[in-house]
Amino acid sequence: MSPKTVSTGTYNFLYIPIILPRTLVKRFLPPSVSSISPSPFWDSSAIQNDCGLRLSENDHVVVFQIGRQYKTGTWIAKFDFQEAKLEIPYLNHPALDPSSTGRFPFLFKQTVMFDSSLMKYASRYIVGLRSLLTKNDPWNFPEPIDKYNSTEIQRGEIVDILKLEVQYGTKDSDSESARLWTSEIFQKMFSQPFYGEFSNGVHKMEGDFAKPLQPISTFSGSIAIKLSAFELTSDGEHLDPEELSRHNCGLDDDGWLRISSELLGYHAKVNITINGPFQPSHFSS
């Protein structure tokens, strides 16, 4: 397996990290990952040592990305397309003994959503990611978002799957969210080597955050997801409403998981490079 540059392009995106109970996050993992022993998750002390993020042993972080890629591909062909993702950083890899990956956390790309059938096919059969064909409303969301508008809540959605509200300029640098989610943590999680449900190897996406194409900004907001769109396994553990409430979440009768305005996200536009595939052992210590 000889790694190479899979694609290059430009990515304009919203990056939204969320802390959720592990009992819920495990439902987002396929059996091949959830069954990793002793745990698919990095422990909280290792995460803190790696990036400074403090989590309880019963919690884990997931990330939603929503954005648009421009002129992304190889020298043969490049494309523009809408993209959204659910990612889970700081996981072990099923092909490796967790004790051998202490220095290299992996990012699990749980689901990638495209407005392009071609990109959906390429993602599934070239990179091995669970991929869905979806529709954005507005069609080019989040392109219409005005990050200089600090007075209005701006909305967009992946139809029937995800709803997002964002507002700029509402979190200061001394807020709890801003102290928790530093730009260094965001960039470190973004660039972890990744794999998907059907991947044979590991890939790595790098963003040129040293030379962003526009200033990186922060926003607050809320998000709602159709839980059934992302559940890959159920270990029978009940989702405790009180535990969800402690994470500013609530599960509606119609199956929407709603997460409140405690969110802090990043808006970035950078050039990206994806390299791979690598053998998982390339990232073992």
Task: Please describe what this structure looks like.
The chain is of the alpha+beta class. Helix content is 16%, strand content 41%. The chain is built from seven helices and 13 strands. A hairpin with a 3-residue loop joins strand 7 and strand 8. The chain is globular, with a radius of gyration of 18 Å. The mean pLDDT is 90.
Labels describing this entry:
single chain; 285 residues; alpha+beta; Acetoacetate decarboxylase-like; 13-stranded mixed sheet; globular
In short:
With 285 residues, this protein is α+β, with helices and mostly antiparallel strands. The chain has helices spanning 22-25, 31-34, 44-51, 117-127, 176-180, 183-190, 241-246; strands at residues 4-21, 59-73, 78-91, 106-114, 131-133, 136-137, 154-158, 162-168, 194-195, 202-207, 217-226, 249-251, 256-278. The protein has a single domain, classed as Acetoacetate decarboxylase-like (Beta Barrel).
